[in-house]
Specification:
The protein is α/β, with parallel strands linked by helices. Among the domains are: 8-49 and 107-153 and 390-474, FAD/NAD(P)-binding domain (3-Layer(bba) Sandwich), CATH 3.50.50.60; 154-218 and 338-387, FAD/NAD(P)-binding domain (3-Layer(bba) Sandwich). The protein is 31% helix and 16% strand. The strands form five sheets. Strands 1, 2, 3, 4, 5, 6, 7, 18 and 19 form a nine-stranded mixed beta sheet that branches. It has a five-stranded parallel beta sheet with strand order 8-17-9-10-13, covered by helices on one side. Strands 14-15-16 form a three-stranded antiparallel beta sheet, with no helix packed on it. The protein is globular and about 75 Å long. Bound molecules: NADP nicotinamide-adenine-dinucleotide phosphate.
Length: 560
Amino acid sequence: MSMNTGDMSWGIEYEAVIVGAGFAGLYALHRLRDTLGLTVKVFDIAGDVGGTWYWNRYPGARCDIESWHYSYSFSEELQQEWTWSERFAGQSEILRYLQHVADRFDLRRDIQFDTAVTAATYDEATDRWDIETNDGERTRARYLISAVGNLSAIKEPDFAGVEQFSGPIYSTARWPHEQIDFTGLRVGVIGTGSSGIQIIPEMAEQAAHLTVFQRTANYATPLRNIPLARARSDRIKASYRELRAPSRDSFGGLPYARAHGAALATTAEQRQRIYEECWNEGGFAFFIGSFSDILSDREANETAAEFIRAKIRERVTDPNTAELLVPRGYAYGTKRPPLETNYYETFNLDHVDLIDVGKEPIAEITARGIQIGNTEYSLDTMIFALGFDAMTGPLLRMGITGRAGLTLNEAWSAGPQTYLGLMTHDFPNLFMITGPQSPAAFSVTPIAIENHVDWISDCIAYLRDHDAVSIEPTRHAQDRWVAHTNKLAERTLLPSTNSWYTGANIPGKPRVCMVYTGSGSGYQTACREAADEGYTGFHLRLPSSAPESRQQPTPAADTA
Ligand code: NAP
């Protein structure tokens, strides 16, 4: 049900508008509409639900968090009725799951697909967000909720001559819906992050010749996907409650216990044994489940890095190719660790070449292929796996303007400014699900989403119960949170690496660590305490009174 206001120039008014219909938008719609009873509209530029899993449908795309963690926990019925077929579900299965969720909770009727939000402006006179969409329509809402995800704004290729190429160019993050047959073709892949590392072995199976253009070698560790037998599925279903608990509180939101303490406190033999066990376990066991000091101590990190380098040298037969694939010059885990299946063995195949574009970059794309120095690599088709303008990109591309004409781009010109990664000063009633400076990018995304949506939903219920028209963080609370997240990041090795965590993958983007690197429990406590104490650190504006400012919070002491 929607509400019409008297002012028809702003079309239909809803209590909440949500942007995005992936994991975040679907749960936010369900929670705000079906639990709080709000009128809600969702816009998504995609043709259907799914978000990341709608767009990234390239061969090999699959999650690298166990399926039984990488799914919603809010409905026990949903958990019981859905059976995952693999330890790490593939893209099409995850998309089917999200379509099922949309059907099961009757969500599609409030989602408008093929529609992009092009501008959203806060009107202080009415305390409403005025939202413009690319269909020319205007919509008004009291609450604007971003569910756009951290990795949805793609990094545009900036290669000279890209328009000259005579063959088709594909992007992993905008993969076509129809089946593409690469049989017999000379295929080039640019990019060796998680997406490149997933698609490269698949392309090698189809292409007549595959050329991989690598700028920075990555520390990939084995995924070790397996089908899930019925008996194991049943056991998972019977123990969801216990399985989920660690995801809410642990670092990384993953239930891999950091059982082994500091790497440097163990002997070289013990370390080797533990690394080997974690390597064999697969998934994020190596990163999260090995040692507690890998991300904070360079020497400890080097022990993990050396272990991985040795594994690469074992698996790649040509020593020159192996040395090209061996990562150097940055710490393991400071670029988001990719997980692989047959990635390194792919380079043992006669029809696969690896080209180093780190020393000598791509000069231009020509009509026939890729020019590097004096060499032209002839290709029939190429695939870009170049990554994303992460975390802030999707928000800053939405044309958001807050109080007094201040744009989000101006407010965040030196990097994101948030309190708890949930809200930002001067942008009342704008909520960000998995926003920058929250731990979402380091967590099991669906669980991080549920935490945020539940917080937002409780907050809106509180505003309603207290007749408040708007909420926004105080500048003081926000400044303290930004300083807190920066301080936590400085205790890690993250800031020194060029990665999407730090914005360094996008030319001109402010370089700042955008992810909260403290413990999940520290973050949960900070969110809970702010709410439990009547939204400390926030302004709540009552209809006809001066802004009410709550006492300033002290960010939870935390360690990375
Ligand atoms: P990414 O990790 O940012 O990797 C982009 C790749 O493109 C890097 O190898 C980068 O090299 C290269 N590149 C960018 N611009 C280039 C240029 N001008 N010339 C040559 N190379 C260039 O992006 P992604 O692989 O799409 O992954 C992004 C994130 O999405 C992941 O970290 C992960 O969080 C998520 N993801 C997850 C999965 C999964 O398994 N669940 C799968 C895919 C993606 P440099 O390193 O030198 O910049």
